[in-house]
Write a structure and sequence with these properties.
14 strands; 6 helices; globular; four-stranded mixed β-sheet; Rossmann fold; alpha/beta; eight-stranded mixed β-sheet
Length: about 200
């Protein structure tokens, strides 16, 4: 299987690649439009601030490339946020990739520290091949200050001050707000399931 990890310029690409290495998949790291378009699966990772990430993606000319993909795509952490239409970070709304509907908003952590950092449980809200072998209250590793509200595209939620989307799906596009590559057995199972998603 050909799998490309998109080099957005704002991600720890090696840790994601190592996670797929452990699954026996030799992923390619690339920002080449043709390489990304021809891949059977595409991973969009990201860490840091959404406005800077979108600026980097636009500068690389990757926005129309990512918007054209019809194969299974997964955004991870900031990469999940970038797949949404609007990103409310940096003082004024930023236009995201628009691969899934909705707006990313600042997480209301109530009286808890921000960012939300560490292990937290998942609650399944919808059946999907991505969640095969995943149970309610399984743990995943999060690092984020912004999140997608729970909606009709939420496959699993988590809670930190308020409920938010931990996993979403819209058509061929998935998003994981947590880091599956750092989430032990649960994360490995989700990445393995992603490889089985029908093209």
């Amino acid at each position: 299987m050909s799998l490309v990890i998109v080099d957005t310029g704002v991600a720890n690409l090696s840790s994601v690649k190592f996670a797929f290495d452990r699954l026996g998949v030799d992923a390619t790291i690339s920002d080449n439009a043709e390489t990304i378009t021809q891949a059977e699966r595409v991973i969009l990772p990201g860490v840091g601030a959404a406005p800077y990430a979108m600026k980097r993606i636009n500068a690389k000319g990757l926005t129309p490339v990512l918007q054209s993909l019809t194969q299974p795509v997964m955004g991870i952490c900031l990469g999940m946020q970038l797949i949404f239409e609007t990103l409310e970070e940096g003082g004024s709304p930023v236009k995201g990739l628009g691969l899934v509907p909705g707006t990313i908003t600042e997480l209301d952590t109530k009286n808890q520290p921000s960012p939300h950092m560490g292990w937290n449980t998942l609650t399944k809200r919808s059946d999907d091949i991505l969640l095969e072998g995943i149970n309610d209250n399984d743990y995943a590793y999060f690092v984020h200050s912004f999140a997608a509200p729970v909606s009709n595209i939420t496959l699993a939620s988590s809670e930190y001050g308020e409920k938010f989307s931990a996993i979403v799906r819209h058509k061929n596009v998935y998003g994981c707000q947590f880091h599956p590559e750092r989430s032990s057995r649960v994360g490995a199972k989700i990445l393995e399931n992603f490889l089985k998603v029908p093209a």
